[in-house]
Design goal:
The protein has 240 residues and is α/β, with parallel strands linked by helices. It folds into 2 domains: 167 residues, Glutaredoxin, CATH 3.40.30; 65 residues, no CATH class. The protein has 9 helices and 7 strands; from the N terminus they run αβαβααβαββααβααβ. The strands form 2 sheets. Strands 1-3-2-4-5 form a 5-stranded mixed sheet. Helix 3 packs across helix 7 and helix 4 packs parallel to helix 7.
Length: 240
Amino acid sequence: MSATSTVLAARDKAGTPINLGKWHAGFTEVKKFADANGLPLMAVWSNGELCSHCTKFERCISQPVFKDWMKDSGVVFYFACNEDKSVDDKTNGKGYNWCWKKQSLNMYPFVRFYWKAKKGTVLSDGTVVDADKVIIDKAVIGDTLDKRQDKAEGAKNCVAYVKKVFKPYVPGASAYKIRFNPNTTVEAINAVLDGIDAAGGHCPCQIPSNDTICHCKDFIQNKGIGEPCICNIYVKQGVD
């Protein structure tokens, strides 16, 4: 039995609806779905039992710590192997060459991270994407993610690395734009902006930390459409 059988068996088949948080087959449809929805994509190409590190890496991404992170990541996932026979996923097919990125990666598995953000998407630092554009495009080998550790320890390393690569992405943040609060006076807005400058870019209404750079983490992650930030000068506006 193939060492990759657990991941291969757990994938959603090509031609079935794409669900976030699960591995999928069918490269072309997965890539098209990610681009159409402005979602980041993590793609893995394995060489199965012919690659000793592939078997270790696949154990890592099958661990609960990695699978639990996948569920809420908002990321589209693609997994294929040299054992696949479909047009898109066979060796040297579209999926293979895309994961490899023609960068002469010299070890399996190939892992590629990609994100074409849509106009209006709010990044984790609060900036707003001004036009549809590729924000992330990076190809590495599996060792880079798991640091050659196995099982749970390797899985933790994988999660940490993927989070770092996709740090600009905030799940669900593409559904709004940020604007000045129309219910706040110009004088109040200017006073807060002066306070932000004086605080070195931090929200003046909070104790400075890595989470209080304006637009702060609380506003980006916890406030809904129409809700103002803690300083009452910014609100989220829905994107048509």
